[in-house]
Write a structure and sequence with these properties.
By secondary structure, this protein is mainly α. The chain has a single domain (9-226), classed as Tetracycline Repressor, domain 2, CATH 1.10.357.10. The chain contains ten helices and no strands. The relative contact order is 0.13.
């Protein structure tokens, strides 16, 4: 029998407020003027596309300018270095993720178990299309440790949602157990991203593997909480 707890409406609302804070922290939303906000959003969207296509090594102000029809001077008015641009790009993406997760939570019928299941399904399902972004992010963080810290911190904020949902499902679980389960889920998702990148052209098998991994993650959650 499952040991997972019944719905906790206040807990879900707290997570939604947390996500709302991440959404409000999007660099384009923090601009002082509407023109500045629109320009930053345009630059960061182009930065994402170039980063996705060419990675951190191939990303340049010139390539971003090609996608925005802006001069290098226009771009450097907002961003002096590529490192600053990349960090803001990732925080912008984090805000987009936050919006998606809020939608999932709003549709969860105030049930943390359904919310977590839907969040995990979204993370695993999207890995087949988003793995290049993950791989480029990983490469940047590894090769630029000092400037990569900001991106790592942004990414950790995303996974805080999974941790908080796990805590809602089993309030008696220790912080160490919640962290262990969160890291387990992350490792499975990261492993799938790597596998996606190495298995191009085998989409049918990868889709089947996604379902298997999602089921195994959930079984692990149930099993670990049953031991508490």
């Amino acid at each position: 029998m499952s040991t997972l707890k019944s719905p906790n409406n206040q807990g879900l609302q707290d997570i939604i407020l947390y996500l709302n804070g991440l959404q409000g922290g999007q660099p384009s939303r923090l601009a002082k003027t509407t023109k500045g906000a629109n320009t930053k959003a345009k630059i960061l969207e182009a930065c994402y596309l170039v980063f996705f296509e060419h990675g951190h090594k191939g990303m340049s102000f010139a390539k971003i300018g090609e996608k925005t029809d802006m001069t290098k001077g226009n771009i450097t008015y907002y961003y002096k270095t590529k490192a600053d641009l990349l960090e803001d790009m990732y925080n912008e993406v984090l805000g987009v993720f936050a919006t998606r997760l809020m939608q999932i939570l709003h549709q969860s019928e105030n049930d943390p178990k359904k919310a977590l299941a839907d969040v995990l399904n979204s993370i695993i399902r999207d890995s087949l299309t988003r793995y290049p972004f993950y791989m480029q992010t990983y490469g940047y963080v590894i090769s630029h440790k000092n400037t990569g810290i900001g991106i790592s911190n942004s990414y950790n904020k995303y996974w805080q949602v999974v941790s908080r949902l796990l805590q809602l499902l089993h309030p008696q679980a220790s912080d160490a157990k919640i962290q262990e389960l969160t890291l387990y889920i992350r490792s499975m998702a990261h492993g799938l991203n790597v596998l996606n990148g190495m298995s191009a052209g085998n989409e049918k098998a990868l889709r089947a593997l996604q379902k298997t991994i999602n089921a195994r993650i959930w079984n692990a959650i149930e099993f670990e909480f049953a031991k508490q």
